[in-house]
Design goal:
Blueprint (H helix, E strand, L loop, with lengths): L19 H12 L6 E3 L6 H6 L6 H6 L3 H8 L22 H10 L8 H13 L11 H12 L6 H7 L2 E5 L2 E2 L5 H8 L6 E2 L2 E2 L1 H4 L6 H12 L6 H17 L4 E4 L11 H12 L5 H22 L2 E4 L3 E2 L4 H7 L7 E2 L9 H7 L7 E3 L6 H10 L5 E3 L9 H15 L17 H21 L5 H19 L5
Parallel strand pairs: 1-2, 2-4, 3-5, 6-7, 7-10, 10-11
Antiparallel strand pairs: 8-9
Helix pairs in contact: 1-19, 1-20, 6-19, 11-12, 13-14, 17-18, 18-19, 19-20
């Protein structure tokens, strides 16, 4: 098999504006942010993987099987999950040859034209692995061998790459009942200030979720607080939050379907919680309780200082058959319309001016950017807008975000970029894309004589580094 005759390279102006005047300005602005450290405060990299610090697996295990962005695109063209090695819960066989899985991906590389997945992977393949040609049916085996050779070296282990990527801080996302043993081990080796946990209580706040009773029993065990009453449930959650703060956590994370924050009376919350313990809770009661608990999470944040992240509006596991066969996170989570103005009002009326609350709100429904989120963040000191997230973390999605929210919320009621990724290798690529898009937007403001170049350059640094650092301050 012959090697390619020309080297694969990426254009230095990729994702910058096409207009020559604006592009020149964007180049200058981007130059000031390109090499800044990365603040990655909202992600899902596995703490156990970081603590083990073992070599990564083969290219299929690293780039294909766990990446629901990548998998869903190929599945949409009729290729079954089985061919991509996505595990099944029912015991039926799937493709286990990693080279065959990798070839299937490479043969479908053209599907990613125009997508952020294409941008991220190109960055990883060229900038991180130095590959000389893009994926294709012809190049698949060459690329597999080249990536595998890199992955076998110490330089490509997780903690070495954390340094190489200049990850100043990396937050994982951890269940409220997690032991945090991996974080403790990392802290003992000097990583405690750079790799921190995030408190994710979702499994405990949705009373009708399958497995809730087991999770609340585990909460009692891990907190050493009896949870046979609603009051005990609250004390157990507060205790676990303190454990997370002691372990270096800076934030909580909440992935509810809706953004309702209507509080219940203590008597009603106790009644519903008791019904859940008996296995008698109704869907409407469970929904009301989960909204009430978002209000309670805000109250707790005013006391312990954890930044509260809320990202509603995704219907999980849209295909029941796929969920039954394979479980969650295989590409079948789909956005729904979101409402924030009325839903957040109960929380913001009580805590919107509280100096102890930082509420960061994300959405995958961009129709609410200008109508609801920007006006809310533009007046309530406690609320900030999270970066375009999930289906919107695309070049055009990020541009539309800036265009729709800046008029009302400005730049400084946003939090800069968060990457929200499980794909460890793509973290620098995602931050690089955000910095390029912001440079382009700011360059246009300079070209239109709405900002000076100095102001735009300062703002770009704030978006890339200062604002995310301020949004998630250390608590210990």
């Amino acid at each position: 098999m012959t090697a390619p005759s020309t080297r694969w390279s990426l254009h230095p102006d990729r994702a910058l504006p096409a207009d020559p005047t604006t592009r020149e300005l964007a180049r200058a602005i981007y130059a000031g942010t390109r090499d800044l450290p990365i603040v990655s405060m909202h992600g899902h990299v596995d703490a156990a993987m970081l603590n083990a610090d073992q070599p990564f697996g083969n290219p299929a295990e690293v780039f294909v099987i766990p990446d629901h962005y990548l998998v869903r695109m190929i599945v949409s063209q009729g290729v079954p999950h089985d061919a991509l090695g996505v595990p099944r819960h029912d015991g039926e066989p799937v493709e286990t040859d990693p080279r065959a899985i990798w070839r299937t991906f490479c043969e479908h590389w053209h599907l990613y034209r125009g997508t952020p997945t294409r941008y991220w992977l190109e960055h990883v393949f060229v900038e991180v692995f130095g590959l000389g040609e893009p994926p294709s049916a012809e190049s698949a085996d060459r690329l597999y061998d080249e990536i595998s050779a890199h992955l076998a070296t110490d330089a490509y282990r997780p903690l070495a790459l954390t340094d190489r990527f200049d990850l100043q801080i990396l937050a994982t996302t951890d269940a409220a009942t997690a032991t945090l043993a991996d974080h403790a081990a990392l802290a003992e080796r000097g990583w405690g200030e750079r790799i921190v946990p995030t408190f994710r209580p979702d499994s405990l706040l949705h009373l009708d979720r399958p497995g809730w009773a087991d999770d609340v029993a585990l909460l009692a065990e891990r907190s050493d607080v009896a949870v046979d009453s609603y009051d005990g449930f609250l004390r157990a959650l507060e205790q676990r939050r303190r454990v997370f703060v002691e372990a270096g956590a800076r934030a909580t994370d909440h992935g509810h379907l809706g953004a309702d924050t209507t509080p219940l009376s203590e008597a009603e919350a106790s009644r519903i919680y008791g019904a859940a313990l008996r296995g008698e809770v109704g869907a409407g009661e469970a929904e009301a309780f989960s909204g009430h608990m978002l209000f309670e999470m805000a109250r707790m944040s005013t006391q312990d200082g954890l930044t509260m992240q809320l990202h509603p509006g995704v219907l999980r596991n849209h295909s029941a058959d796929v969920f039954t066969a394979r479980g969650a996170d295989v590409g079948y989570d789909v956005p729904v319309a979101a409402e924030f103005t009325r839903s957040l009002r109960p929380l913001l009326e009580v805590f919107g001016h509280a100096p102890g609350l930082r509420l960061i709100v994300f959405t995958v429904d961009e129709t609410v950017f200008a109508r609801e989120l920007a006006p809310l963040a533009g007046v309530y000191p406690a609320m900030k807008l999270g970066a375009p997230w999930w289906f919107l973390d695309t070049p055009d999605g990020m541009r539309r975000f800036r265009e729709q929210v800046t008029d009302t919320a400005g730049f400084y009621n946003t939090t800069g970029f968060v990457d929200d990724t499980r794909a460890f290798f793509s973290i620098p690529a995602r931050h690089d894309l955000a910095r390029r898009i912001d440079a382009g937007f700011l360059g246009r403001l300079v070209a239109e004589h709405r900002l000076s170049l100095d102001e735009a350059s300062e703002t770009a640094v704030d978006l890339a580094y200062t604002l995310p650092t301020q949004a998630y301050p250390p608590l210990r």
